[in-house]
Design a protein that fits this description.
Largest sheet: 2 strands, antiparallel
Low-confidence stretches: none
CATH superfamily: Nucleotide cyclase, GGDEF domain
Number of strands: 2
Mean pLDDT: 78
CATH class: Alpha Beta
Radius of gyration: 14 Å
CATH architecture: 2-Layer Sandwich
Shape: globular
Number of helices: 3
Organism: Bradyrhizobium macuxiense
InterPro entries: Nucleotide_cyclase (IPR029787)
CATH topology: Alpha-Beta Plaits
Structural class: alpha+beta
Strand content: 5-15%
Protein name: Guanylate cyclase domain-containing protein
Helix content: 55-70%
Number of domains: 1
Length: 81
């Protein structure tokens, strides 16, 4: 794992600057915290947040993010939040 750590970090930083930052900003959002492989963003409205999430998912249809999104949507529908 250590042999690939620098490449992985570089790829994450590139992904953030190329996809995440502009995607959040385009929907009136702001990244307020980074957790290494995650982030917390705030938006002016729930509509902006949803549009951002959907636009990020649309960039990579086969992504693991779809699994996470589906799981969180299921939790929200069940009322367990």
């Amino acid at each position: 794992m250590e042999a690939h750590e620098e490449n992985t970090h570089a790829r994450l930083m590139q992904l953030r600057s190329d996809v995440l930052d502009p995607g959040v900003t385009a929907q009136n959002g702001r990244i307020v915290k980074n957790t290494g492989d995650g982030f917390l963003a705030t938006f002016d409205t729930a509509r902006d947040a949803t549009r951002c999430a959907l636009s990020l998912l649309a960039r990579d249809p086969g992504s693991r993010l779809h699994t996470v999104w589906d799981m969180m949507a299921g939790i929200a529908k069940s009322g367990r939040l």
